[in-house]
């Protein structure tokens, strides 16, 4: 799928045989009204985007992304999450919000250098703002305004887009103004680099002192934080929710995972990243949940760097291009005739090893791929392996598991459902 914004013209061409769609749409008035246009990682382009992405990736790597130092933070948070699940006493409950807040805490520990109690008012407010914007940004209101931009000038906030922009401003103020001085520090040095905010501000100040041109500033920092939290919280927690929902429909998959965990590492200690290569069936199930859940059905926007012709269609330089993940993840030529079925075994070869598909791109592709992919993969493995080691996830009515319903916004998430979380004996 290719989303094109060029010269204000509007047209749409769909190429079903090549699984590509090309559209030229007038720029969204929602985007035009935003103070964060062309900032951060997701929507920025050119030199600003390159600097924001490179600095952010460098900070995340220095903080241990993909290494055991960050895995320890995840394990500590997962232990708190498992305790909350245990306190449900096996009663039917909707655990989506709890999962969302627990995943958020991992990212908060990276961004601000500490975790928060689930009832902390600032923490709850930030998670609420992020969730609202993520679930409403592609709602009916913004969609109508995209189609009829003149409606933007109606008085009031009939389509709730002003509220989304207000939320974004509040998020920036909370993080950049409050959390930057969380421990009474206005300047950062080598001795207090315990958060992404601290490291970003330190790098910004260092470049300015040296006279080096830089795009690092508070507005970009606010947008980088919004991008990391918005994408990281939603995609990871939603993937976990899809995992639970699909395994409610396939309890035999849960049992195979538990047998593998019991055989390879036992139940006396919590799983670690050192166990990842041992738990092949668990990894295959996570990958199948990512494929079937298809949390980011359109990936992220890319920018065409030069005039290009594809399948006879001209794509001008400056065109915004979006990949159609839904088409890729449901392609029967890649995944087989049962592509619409949940079957983790498709990711395991005849020798029992994990199969790697070029078409498996849950974190998008190219230079715009999610910068937090390594962190998300670490968290998915540690969290889900720990959950399956300790609990069974059962449908409240074994004969009628919750219906699989999708809710579309920026992400694709399951509708509300309840689950019984039962301690394994």
Count of discrete structural domains: 2
Q: So how many helices?
A: 14
* SSE string: EEEHHHHHHHHHHHEEEEHHHEEEE
Give the end-to-end Cα distance, rounded to a whole number of Å: 48 Å
Q: Tell me about the largest β-sheet.
A: 3 strands, mixed
* Unreliable runs: 1-34
Helix and strand content put the structural class at mainly alpha
Count the E strands: 11
Mean of pLDDT: 81
Query: What is the name of the CATH superfamily of the largest domain?
Result: Cytochrome P450
Strand content: 5-15%
The top level CATH class name of the largest domain: Mainly Alpha
Radius of gyration in whole Å, from Cα?
22 Å
**Fraction of residues in helices?**
40-55%
CATH architecture of the largest domain: Orthogonal Bundle
Protein name: Cytochrome P450 2D6-like
Subcellular location: Membrane
Family: Belongs to the cytochrome P450 family.
Organism: Aplysia californica (California sea hare)
Quick recap:
With 425 residues, this protein is mainly alpha-helical. It is built from 14 helices and eleven strands. The chain is globular and about 60 Å long.
């Amino acid at each position: 799928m290719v989303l094109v914004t060029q010269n204000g013209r509007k047209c749409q061409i769909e190429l079903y045989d090549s699984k590509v769609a090309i559209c030229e749409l007038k720029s969204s008035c929602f985007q035009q009204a935003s103070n964060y246009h062309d900032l951060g990682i997701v929507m920025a382009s050119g030199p600003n985007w390159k600097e924001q992405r490179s600095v952010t990736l460098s900070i995340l790597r220095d903080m241990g992304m993909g290494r055991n130092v960050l895995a320890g933070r995840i394990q500590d948070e997962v232990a708190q999450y498992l305790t909350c699940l245990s306190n449900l006493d096996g009663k039917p409950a909707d655990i989506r919000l709890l999962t969302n807040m627990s995943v958020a805490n991992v990212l908060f520990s990276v961004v601000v250098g500490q975790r928060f109690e689930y009832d902390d008012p600032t923490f709850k407010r930030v998670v609420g703002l992020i969730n609202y914007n993520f679930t409403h940004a592609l709602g009916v209101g913004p969609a109508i305004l995209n189609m009829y931009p003149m409606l933007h000038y109606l008085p009031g906030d009939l389509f709730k887009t002003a509220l989304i922009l207000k939320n974004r401003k509040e998020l920036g103020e909370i993080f950049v103004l409050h959390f930057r001085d969380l421990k009474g520090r206005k300047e950062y040095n080598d001795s207090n680099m315990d958060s992404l905010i601290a490291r970003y501000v330190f790098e910004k100040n260092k470049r300015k002192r040296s006279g080096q041109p830089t795009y690092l500033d508070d507005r970009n920092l606010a947008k980088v934080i919004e991008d990391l939290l918005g994408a990281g919280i939603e995609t990871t927690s939603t993937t976990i929710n899809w995992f639970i929902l699909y395994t409610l429909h396939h309890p035999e998959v849960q049992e195979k995972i538990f047998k593998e965990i019991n055989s390879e590492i036992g139940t006396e200690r919590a799983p670690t990243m050192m166990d990842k290569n041992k738990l092949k069936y668990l990894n295959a199930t996570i990958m199948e949940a990512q494929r079937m859940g298809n949390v980011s059905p359109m990936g992220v926007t890319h920018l065409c760097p030069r005039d290009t012709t594809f399948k006879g269609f001209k794509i001008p330089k400056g065109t915004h291009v979006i990949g159609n993940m839904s088409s890729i993840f449901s392609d029967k030529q890649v995944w087989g005739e049962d592509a619409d079925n949940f079957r983790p075994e498709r990711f395991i070869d005849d020798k029992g090893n994990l199969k790697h598909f070029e078409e498996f791109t849950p974190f998008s592709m190219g230079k715009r791929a999610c910068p937090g992919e390594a962190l998300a993969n670490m968290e998915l493995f540690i969290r889900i392996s720990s959950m399956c080691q300790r609990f069974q996830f059962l449908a409240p009515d074994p004969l009628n598991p919750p219906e699989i319903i999708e809710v579309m916004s920026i992400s694709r998430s399951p509708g509300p459902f309840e689950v019984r979380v039962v301690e394994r004996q």
